């Protein structure tokens, strides 16, 4: 066992990994913020009555969602050489996950009972007021667990940023492995750190889900 | 393990406190169903609190009483859909889910439990036909795979039963294409295909439109007339209870408050709760 | 642009090879994932803690540790412990383990969603536990799980793009080769993403066909043949069949 696992190497790998963990968290938070806002916009636009609006937006959403995040990251990174890699990473993560989150919003809006719309109409509330005061508060409550789950998924997909050389937690481990020619300790620790961070968070989201259900 | 030397029979009939049980109507013969001090709780709610009663072979017993009085729980215990928290249940003298060995209540092994369950059939309020199978497949599934019948043999029997319930032409139909009344008749045929000694009917007409209730009850009436299957019936159809059963038990809070033949029960009930209940159900 | 197209035309055989590798990873990973999902999903519902505990642990472990880390761990670290695998096997294993864990949750949820009455009816007919699951519960749960399995399959396809980094020549690798030969990033990546999009579309169509068939077997919805017929089915014949 001592041949394959060295505690000393593990200790050496830890500082750069923890440094990378900050970038991982940063990318997740910024990516989630972009996805949450853009996703809502997409969901609202897709409710338009005009097919000239919904069809192209629908196709774009479908396209982004069914092609690899990894390829999208490299594509945008290569197309915009002057933009810092971390910015590219956050934005692509955000746009990719916006396509998922828009579905969560859509389901949440659809779940608002018809009676609520009718009641708002009966009160003759203006359209924007109906959305802001009646529909969205109810819809967003229902969407929180779904958004939370996608935020966790995004967190676990931040390692893709290695492909555009953003030194998040996984890239830090890989670089350490590349320097020392031993990946064992660094990669194992990164995997466990992902588990350590994502599992309790997913338990929290599950609790939120039960509370709001 | 000194218990293992104890006699296999759970409660020898000689030692059972038979005379103390008011509801025992059989003497000598082994009853088809016997509850001895059965306790069932759901959380803090005790539904059955030491229930004793027995049903003779070939009896048709209707259980009546307000909802929550424990009637359906009795059927579900007899189908092992629920497990009793205390007491034992005997089917044909054989311990079902639990038995007394060396003075202790222990679980009956799964194999023996299934051997007993094989003699019991049930028809549900919501039919519960398998949507992934045709009508015929629903009926022959268990005879083929549980009783080990050949497909041809099981099919012949299934066709007889379908004929009996008036659905011979629906043999190859999908269950979802049938009306509720038709589905329930298939469910009756499915239960009968296992040749049960005991048939449990759990509010079999409650989910049906009023105009087709008669069809289903007609089928059951015929089963009652042409077989000697022991029946335990939970129903709100008092006329059916009157036609088919030879005994009616009135339940309230998990206890039998009155027991009589249907004629007496429905025309001159003695217990106050029975009178109230029948007034409410019969609607006058 | 015409230069690009002729380069692409010359590269088509290599694109074909890339698609084959991507499909091998996707379908191989999906097959492994399905088996694991069924085992772990059923294990997660087991009465015995000795089965349920390990099942839950495996599911949470592979859901929680990130596909990227798992793949590179299998590729770089596992050989240290004396297990050396081919790249393709490594990719299939990582994708299968990761999405098998996600699939287990889908299987568990779908089985729980089969109405209680179906379990009770099976018990009343004295069907044994295995028989009950195989003949009554799973066929019904299957129809419920297909839409969610479709989502996972598309995610698995997307995840397979990692294969380039464990030295496999998949579609992602082809994109990079095309970029080198055309010197046109936009063209190469657009072509590459369209290939992935087409693959995802075909896989979705296949899964939708499975779903139609599964639902039809449960007696709800039209048969696959009716769906595939070009002319719409007249309402009268549909009503007549019911």
Automatic annotation (TrEMBL), chain A:
GO terms for biological process: amino acid transport. It is found in: Cell membrane. InterPro entries: AA_ABC_transptr_permease_3TM, ArtM/GltK/GlnP/TcyL/YhdX-like, Ectoine_EhuD, MetI-like, MetI-like_sf. It is a multi-pass membrane protein. The chain crosses the membrane at residues 20-45, 74-98, 186-205. It comes from the Bacteria. Keywords: Amino-acid transport, Cell membrane, Membrane, Transmembrane, Transmembrane helix, Transport. Belongs to the binding-protein-dependent transport system permease family. PANTHER family: L-CYSTINE TRANSPORT SYSTEM PERMEASE PROTEIN TCYL, MEMBRANE COMPONENT OF AMINO ACID ABC TRANSPORTER. This is Ectoine/hydroxyectoine ABC transporter permease subunit EhuD. The gene is ehuD.
Automatic annotation (TrEMBL), chain C:
It comes from Cellulosimicrobium composti. InterPro entries: AA_ABC_transptr_permease_3TM (IPR010065), ArtM/GltK/GlnP/TcyL/YhdX-like (IPR043429), Ectoine_EhuC (IPR014342), MetI-like (IPR000515), MetI-like_sf (IPR035906). Its main location: membrane. This is Ectoine/hydroxyectoine ABC transporter permease subunit EhuC. Pfam families: BPD_transp_1. Keywords: Amino-acid transport, Cell membrane, Membrane, Transmembrane, Transmembrane helix, Transport. It is a multi-pass membrane protein. Signal peptide: none annotated. It comes from the Bacteria. GO terms for molecular function: transmembrane transporter activity. Belongs to the binding-protein-dependent transport system permease family. The chain crosses the membrane at residues 20-41, 61-83, 141-166, 186-210. One of its GO terms (biological process) is amino acid transport. It is found in: Cell membrane. The gene is ehuC. One of its GO terms (cellular component) is ATP-binding cassette (ABC) transporter complex. Residues 19-207 form the ABC transmembrane type-1 domain.
């Amino acid at each position: 066992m001592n041949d394959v696992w060295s505690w000393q190497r593990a200790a050496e790998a830890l500082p750069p990994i923890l440094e990378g963990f900050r970038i991982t968290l940063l990318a997740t938070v910024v990516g989630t913020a972009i996805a949450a806002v853009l996703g809502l916009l997409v969901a609202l636009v897709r409710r338009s009555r005009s097919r000239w609006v919904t069809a192209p937006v629908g196709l774009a959403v479908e396209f982004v969602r069914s092609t690899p995040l990894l390829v999208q990251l490299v594509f945008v990174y290569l197309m915009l050489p002057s933009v810092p890699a971390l910015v590219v990473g956050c934005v692509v993560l955000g746009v990719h996950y916006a396509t998922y989150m828009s579905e969560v919003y859509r389901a949440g809006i659809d779940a608002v009972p018809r009676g609520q719309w009718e009641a708002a109409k009966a009160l003759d509330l203006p359209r924007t007021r109906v959305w802001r005061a009646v529909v969205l508060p109810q819809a967003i409550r229902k969407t929180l667990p779904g958004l939370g789950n996608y935020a966790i998924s995004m967190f676990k997909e931040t390692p893709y940023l290695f492909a555009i050389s953003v030194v998040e937690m996984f890239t830090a481990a890989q670089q350490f492995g590349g320097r020392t020619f031993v990946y064992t300790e660094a990669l194992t620790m990164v995997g466990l750190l992902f588990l350590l961070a994502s599992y309790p968070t997913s338990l929290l989201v599950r609790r939120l889900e039960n509370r709001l259900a | 393990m000194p218990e293992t030397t104890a006699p296999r029979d759970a409660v020898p009939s000689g030692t059972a406190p038979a005379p103390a049980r008011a509801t025992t109507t059989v003497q000598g013969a082994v009853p088809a169903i016997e509850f001895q001090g059965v306790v069932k709780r759901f959380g803090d709610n005790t539904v059955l609190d030491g229930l004793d009663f027995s049903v003779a072979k070939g009896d048709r017993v209707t259980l009546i009483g307000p909802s929550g009085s424990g009637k359906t729980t009795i059927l579900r215990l007899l189908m092992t859909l629920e497990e009793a928290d205390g007491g034992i249940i005997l089917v044909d003298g054989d311990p079902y889910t639990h038995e007394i060995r060396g003075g202790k209540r222990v679980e009956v092994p799964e194999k023996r439990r299934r051997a007993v369950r094989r003699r019991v059939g049930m028809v549900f309020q919501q039919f519960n036909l398998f949507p992934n199978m045709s009508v015929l497949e629903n009926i022959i599934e268990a005879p083929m795979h549980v009783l080990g019948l050949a497909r041809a043999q099981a099919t012949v029997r299934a066709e007889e039963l379908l004929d009996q319930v008036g659905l011979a032409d629906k043999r190859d139909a999908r269950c979802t294409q049938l009306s509720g009344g038709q589905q329930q008749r298939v469910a009756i045929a499915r239960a009968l295909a296992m040749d049960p000694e005991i048939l449990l009917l759990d509010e079999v007409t409650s989910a049906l439109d009023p105009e087709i209730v008669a069809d289903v009850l007609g089928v059951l009436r015929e089963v009652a007339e042409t077989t000697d299957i022991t029946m335990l019936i939970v129903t709100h159809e008092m006329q059916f209870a009157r036609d088919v059963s030879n005994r009616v038990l009135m339940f309230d809070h998990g206890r039998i408050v009155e027991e009589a033949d249907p004629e007496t029960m429905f025309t001159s009930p003695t217990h106050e709760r029975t009178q109230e209940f029948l007034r409410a159900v019969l609607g006058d | 642009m015409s230069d690009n197209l002729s380069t692409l035309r010359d590269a088509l055989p290599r694109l074909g090879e890339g698609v084959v590798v991507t499909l091998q990873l996707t379908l191989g990973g999906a097959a492994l994932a399905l088996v694991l999902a069924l085992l772990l999903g059923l294990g997660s519902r087991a009465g015995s803690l000795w089965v349920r505990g390990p099942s839950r642990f495996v599911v949470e472990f592979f859901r929680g540790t990130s596909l990227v880390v798992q793949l590179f761990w299998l590729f770089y670290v596992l050989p240290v412990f004396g297990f050396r695998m081919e790249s393709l096997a490594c990719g299939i294993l990582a994708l299968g383990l990761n999405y098998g864990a996600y699939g287990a949750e889908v299987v568990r949820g779908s089985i729980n969603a089969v109405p209680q009455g179906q379990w009770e009816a099976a018990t009343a007919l004295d069907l044994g536990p295995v028989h009950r699951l195989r003949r009554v519960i799973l066929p019904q749960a299957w129809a419920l799980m297909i839409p969610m399995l479709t989502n996972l399959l598309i995610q698995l396809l997307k995840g397979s793009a990692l294969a380039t980094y464990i030295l496999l020549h998949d579609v992602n690798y082809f994109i990079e080769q095309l970029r080198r030969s055309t010197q046109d990033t936009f063209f190469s990546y657009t072509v590459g993403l369209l290939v992935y999009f087409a693959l995802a579309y075909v896989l979705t169509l296949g899964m939708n066909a499975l779903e139609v068939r599964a639902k039809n077997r449960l007696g709800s919805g039209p048969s696959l043949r009716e769906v595939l017929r070009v002319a719409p089915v007249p309402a009268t014949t549909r009503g007549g069949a019911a």
